[in-house]
Amino acid sequence: MEERNRRPSKAELEEDRFLEWVLQAGEYVKGRAQLFIGGAVAVVAVIVIANFVQGQRLEARSQASAMIFEADLAEQSGQIDRVVAISRQLIEEYAGTPAAAQGMITLGNRYFTLGRYVDAQGLYQRYLDEHGDQPPLVFAARTGLAACLEAQGDLAAAAQAFVDYADDHPDHPPSAMALMDGARCYRLLDDASRQREILERVVREYGKTPIAQRARQELALLP
Description:
By secondary structure, this protein is an all-alpha fold. The protein folds into two domains: 15-137, no CATH class; 153-223, Serine Threonine Protein Phosphatase 5, Tetratricopeptide repeat (Alpha Horseshoe), CATH 1.25.40. 78% of the residues lie in helices and 0% in strands. The protein has helices spanning 2-5, 10-31, 40-58, 63-76, 80-93, 98-113, 117-130, 135-151, 155-168, 175-188, 192-205, 210-221.
């Protein structure tokens, strides 16, 4: 009982924040891999770390957590049908729980990769309406909605949605990734002025992150 009630140390809290970032970055990249250019080695490294940490933390949890872990393993082995089935089960049998919330995001991401953008949008929005209280999942849901708009050709709305997320979460490191996605949409719209504005914002507000270096490189290529 004493161990269960022990308050986490500062070091443990810092580790949790780092692991949270790794997990959410890995999930974001996995769910929208076709929208990324380059950085394949770094992407794989993030995914491997995320999967390892997630597996370690799920070993002693409930059946719902075990199902999430099983879905992750199925995804790694390319068993998309199994991932979809488990996610649906989580949503239906554990409604209102964090497990169901995770199931919504996982299933939304899988629908996205299958080109089922309307279905994906429905799940991302459902998560925000019914839960919307876990920062990594909020990030996945809101950028997922933006990615669906982009995939359906509404680049202007997608760009604004990516930027809106960053505006609402100025102190959240993944906001830099959302801004880069917004800049990419403006590039595809041939709006160099808006693209430059957003890239400069990444450098200014997230200058110490690796993403800022990528922003600098893209700025150097602009006329």
